[in-house]
């Protein structure tokens, strides 16, 4: 039996960035890197939701266009809720695939739900699920209502949006509300009562929450 430890998300991101450097125009990489730095420097709002507060909820849409809510998806269970930018984001796809492979099996054994939320249209949620072979709930939060309530919404610069457009990515078309707002990559652990017990918010969208950190937080649930 193999004893090889799963590769960390940080290492996977590094390898992916090396590949991007060989494939993307240098000026596009420069623009994205500058915007990444701006978001990191802006940091997390001091008003962002903290452990001990109730997890906000809103009307969501599942990958097939049906209405739902976090409460309905949890169905009384504790949950790990992952906020990601969209199926167009390679960092998000890498992360969701790692969570499918490394996180979901452990959560399923514990009866803890795993839910991924983005502001994109339902067909984007379906694409994310299909591209990454996801078997957990992937839903849309039109207008980032839950993300706004958590204080984790940001937006790329005009230069970054233009650079993304050169790559065929139009955030206003991808998002359900026609905006270019996106959540900071965030993982929230909530208990059975719906209280936030742990959160990790990454204003630098290239930094993602590692699986062991999430499992550590889940392990502290009552």
Account of the 3D structure:
A hairpin with a 4-residue loop joins β1 and β2. This protein starts with 8 loop residues before the first helix and ends with a helix. The mean pLDDT is 95. It has a single domain (9-219), classed as 3-Layer(aba) Sandwich (Glutaredoxin). The longest helix has 21 residues, at 90-110. The chain has helices at 9-23, 26-42, 70-74, 90-110, 122-132, 145-150, 158-166, 171-174, 211-219, and strands at 60-62, 67-68, 79-83, 113-118, 137-140, 153-154, 182-183, 186-190, 196-201. The chain has nine helices and nine strands. By secondary structure, it is α+β, with helices and mostly antiparallel strands. α1 (9-23) packs antiparallel against α4, α2 (26-42) runs antiparallel to α7 and α4 (90-110) runs parallel beside α9 (211-219).
Q: What general form does the structure show?
A: globular
Provide the helix percentage. 40-55%
Domain module count: 1
Please report which band the strand proportion falls in: under 5%, 5-15%, 15-25%, 25-35%, 35-45% or over 45%.
15-25%
Q: Label the CATH architecture.
A: 3-Layer(aba) Sandwich
Assembly type of the chains comes to: single chain
Order of SSEs: HHEEHEHEHEHEHHEEEH
What would the average pLDDT be, to the nearest integer?
95
Distance between the termini: 33 Å
Topology readout:
Elements: H1 9-23, H2 26-42, E1 60-62, E2 67-68, H3 70-74, E3 79-83, H4 90-110, E4 113-118, H5 122-132, E5 137-140, H6 145-150, E6 153-154, H7 158-166, H8 171-174, E7 182-183, E8 186-190, E9 196-201, H9 211-219
Parallel strand pairs: 3-4, 4-5
Antiparallel strand pairs: 1-2, 1-5, 3-8, 6-7, 8-9
Helix pairs in contact: 1-4, 2-7, 4-9
């Amino acid at each position: 039996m193999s004893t090889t430890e799963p590769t960390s998300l940080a290492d996977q991101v590094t390898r992916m960035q090396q590949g991007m450097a060989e494939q993307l125009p240098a000026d596009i990489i420069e623009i994205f890197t500058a915007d990444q730095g701006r978001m990191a420097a802006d940091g997390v709002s001091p008003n962002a939701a903290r452990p001990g507060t109730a997890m906000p909820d809103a009307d969501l849409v599942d990958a097939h266009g049906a209405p739902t809510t976090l409460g309905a998806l949890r169905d009384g269970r504790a949950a790990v809720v992952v906020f990601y930018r969209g199926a167009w984001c390679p960092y998000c796809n890498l992360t969701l695939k790692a969570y499918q492979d490394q996180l979901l099996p452990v959560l399923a054994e514990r009866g803890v739900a795993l839910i991924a939320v983005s502001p994109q249209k339902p067909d984007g949620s379906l694409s994310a699920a299909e591209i990454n072979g996801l078997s957990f709930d992937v839903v849309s939060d039109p207008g980032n209502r839950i993300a706004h309530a958590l204080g984790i919404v940001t937006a790329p610069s005009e230069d970054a949006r233009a650079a993304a457009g050169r790559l065929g990515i139009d955030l206003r078309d991808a998002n359900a509300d026609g905006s270019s707002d996106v959540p900071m990559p965030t993982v929230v652990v909530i208990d059975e009562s719906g209280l936030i017990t742990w959160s990790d918010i990454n204003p630098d969208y290239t930094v993602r929450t590692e699986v062991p950190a999430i499992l550590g937080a889940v392990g502290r649930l009552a």
